[in-house]
Design goal:
single chain, alpha+beta, Glutamine Phosphoribosylpyrophosphate, subunit 1, domain 1, six-stranded antiparallel β-sheet, 12 helices, about 30% helix
Length: about 450
């Protein structure tokens, strides 16, 4: 839990557009001698009623496809990331001052942007340029790989959080000032009093495995897809197997019709020698393009993502929990924590987490399962990676026989998210894989 929470704080600095103290998340854990737990810090619909919401669409180009997101002050839901991580830290050992210290150090000294991080900035730059404050967080212009980004305001905020043992009140004051109804936002003081929910994770049993995942929409859809995949043996023909997986993903999409979710995300998975597993996913949507004054924090745009608002924008009744696709997951093998995984990747999360889990559960090494080519499907559309396919033409033909529109990607694509997974095998050996699609990394202690 300590490593997962400290890693999450550090992600606010290292992946500032995908994870943010202005966003939210969820953590699933199985700890020795304790019941499995899910700490849910994803917000509910706010109650503010501005006369004229600051709310508009920005289209993001992913290369082989585009996706529209609504941003502005009226797209912001309550930021629960900081209260959520504080709650999760109570299940660990180290004090908050130590858990925030790596993030504080990086925010002051600078975090070097890798190629994938630079790609994220280039994708979401139309949102970043909506305010001078957001541009300043990027160093004053579109950053490139190798650039070092600092955030002294965020360092001060996290240092104060560690010292107080709670979210600094000035953070919520800045959020209310910058995102309340008087300036086109939806947040009220009552909305900012929301607290994380802690309870049992969703559990699915498949043979020798028990899968513990989020209690919201994302976890339910992982259960649907994984159940469909596990219901029959893999097809020996590559194209037929890709089609089978795509159909399972489409079943997951159909199941989410009542409550859907997406969002750009980052993920941390941890296993330890004592037999504990923790999996935490953070999201800021794509960011709203505006920063809470004096905090170094860009706020989320959860109210501007279509899948979180299936009946239309600003239609949720105040206090209604927003749906989310994030699915931090822990796998128990013969009753012991054996795997922790999760993914970023918008509404593709349900598909890619299920595919990696399914591959590992049928005996593939986790390192292979994470980098293996992926497929995702919704209604009459399918998206597929062709890299390392034995017969890509046959794969495309099979998909086109069942889907009206097929979107092929020649290589491993950022679009398909990043599954970061850790595993301890039956002999007690540790394995881990960071997804190259999202700049994943592995550390052994």
């Amino acid at each position: 839990m300590d490593a997962a929470v400290a890693g999450a704080f550090a992600a606010f600095v290292a992946e500032p557009l995908l994870a943010s103290a202005g966003g939210a998340g969820m953590l699933t854990a199985a700890l020795p001698g304790r019941r499995p737990v899910c700490v849910d810090f994803f917000p509910s619909a706010p109650s503010g009623q501005p006369a004229a919401p600051d709310f508009f669409e920005v289209v993001i180009d992913f290369g082989s496809t585009t996706q529209g997101f609504h941003v502005g002050r009226g797209s912001v839901a309550a930021p629960l990331a900081l209260p959520g991580l504080i709650e999760a830290a109570r299940h660990g050992v180290l004090p908050l001052t130590e858990l925030v210290s790596p993030a504080v150090r990086m925010a002051r000294e600078g975090a070097t942007l890798g190629p994938e991080g630079a790609h994220v900035f280039s994708l979401l730059w139309p949102i970043q340029t909506l305010s001078e404050e957001a541009i300043a967080l990027a160093g004053g212009g579109l950053p490139a790989a190798g650039d070092t980004l600092t955030n002294p305001d965020l360092a001060d905020l996290l240092e104060e959080l560690g010292r107080l043992g709670e979210t600094p009140p000035r953070f919520f004051d800045a959020v209310l000032e910058g995102f309340g109804p008087d300036v086109g936002g939806m947040l009220t003081a009552a909305d900012l009093e929301a607290t994380p929910r802690t309870g049992a994770p969703r559990q699915l049993r498949l043979g020798d495995w028990a899968v513990l995942t989020s209690s919201r929409v994302g976890g339910a859809l992982v259960e649907v897809i994984l159940g469909a995949l596990s219901g029959a043996d893999p097809e020996p023909d590559e194209a037929a197997e890709v089609l089978r997986v795509a159909e399972a993903c489409r079943a997951g999409h159909a199941a989410r019709a009542a409550a859907s979710a997406r969002g750009s995300t980052t993920h941390v998975s941890v296993l330890d020698a004592a037999g504990g597993a923790a999996s935490v996913t953070l999201t800021n949507g794509e960011g709203c393009g505006q920063v809470a004054r004096g905090t170094g924090v860009q706020l989320n745009n959860f109210l501007g993502e279509e899948d979180l608002n299936p009946a239309g924008f600003h239609r949720h009744a105040p206090g209604t929990p927003l749906p989310t696709m994030i699915a931090p997951t822990v796998g128990l093998h013969h009753g012991r924590p054996a795997m922790a995984l999760g993914s970023g990747g918008s509404n593709r999360i349900r598909s890619v987490v299920s595919q990696v889990l399914y591959r590992v559960m049928r005996g593939e090494p986790v390192e292979h399962a994470v980098v293996a080519p992926r497929v995702h499907a919704e209604t009459d559309h399918a998206w597929v990676e062709l890299v390392e396919r034995t017969d890509p033409d046959a794969v495309l033909a099979a998909l086109r026989s069942r889907f009206g529109v097929v979107h092929p990607f020649p290589g491993r694509a950022f679009y398909f998210g990043g599954v970061h997974a850790a595993l301890i095998d039956a002999e007690g050996r540790a394995h881990a894989a960071g997804d190259p699609r999202r700049g994943g990394a592995v550390a052994y202690a």
